[in-house]
Amino acid sequence: MKMENRFFEALKIRDNIWQILGQGGELCYLIEGNAQAVLIDGLEGAGSLKAFVRELTDLPVTLVLTHGHLDHCGAAFEYGECCMHPDDIALMYSERHGSAASRLGFAQMKSPLCTHQTPSLKITDVIPEAPVKTYPLYDGDVIDAGGIELEVIGVPGHTFGTLVFLDRKDRILFSGDACNINTLLGMTGCTSIEQYLESLRHLKSFENEYDVMYGGHGRNTVDRSIVDDAIAMCERILAGTDDKEPAVSMDGTQVFYGSAHNPDYTPACGGLANIQYSTDRLWKKDVRRYQPAGSIIKDGKN
């Protein structure tokens, strides 16, 4: 079953689950329980996702975020509240991720994943930044929608506050950008490779609880073996035996890929997981949690 309007396209991937495509090729997921609906991620904010979701369900909707990046947090400014890990709140409000101009820029980017892109998007099409009431989510929390429970798993890496959501009933992991074919760890707000490796080992402990992963980019499912591939790639990077393929990050800085890659960013060396990283962000001692520019907070434990 398919639903669409000018800004969004939704496909029903289970009887109670919609996969919704945004302007930049990013994805969010609407899961209906008996009493509540949970919206995992909020796209970039081009168009009214809140109004579109209301066409898909009559249930009360709770927005939860996998992380605070601009292509996942847009609807938070429209709903006015969301659940997320506290470590990503400042990131969501930053100029790079919170501003309407940045989110418009993302929506206008050309990508093979952008199959429902509206021509001539304008700043007035984008939900403006606004105060958001945030409720904390932590590793081990459970979201109960009535008949459907989503277990929260912390996977710091792509950001310090990255979360994934496990639906044990349908054996699905909603993984956002936590572990995908092109996992970006070379930007402001990312953890070190060392901490990401610890997170992946934590995620691996749940491998018998799900069969497939639905991520934040790319409409197809991803096999859970990608977690093992990502662990192996992290180990190669830390050992200095990776390909160290030069690249440029979304921040415009010099970074590297763990492997030379195919056009779809899958590693040329085999497996599913490639990782973009910075050589000055390898170890936990080198990286601290995100703080806005000019913050008076200069020190703190990671």
Assembly category: single chain
Strand content: 25-35%
- Rounded to an integer in angstroms, the radius of gyration calculated over CA atoms is 18 Å
Total domain count: 2
CATH class of the largest domain: Alpha Beta
Could you describe the largest sheet, including whether it forms a barrel? 6 strands, mixed
Structural summary, described in words:
The protein is an alpha+beta fold and 302 residues long. It folds into 2 domains: 1-154, Metallo-beta-lactamase, Chain A, CATH 3.60.15; 180-291, no CATH class. Helix content is 20%, strand content 25%. The chain contains 8 helices and 18 strands. The protein has a 6-stranded mixed sheet with strand order 1-2-3-4-5-6, covered by helices on one side. α7 (193-204) runs antiparallel to α8 (226-239). The protein is globular, with a radius of gyration of 18 Å. The model has no long low-confidence stretch (mean pLDDT 95).
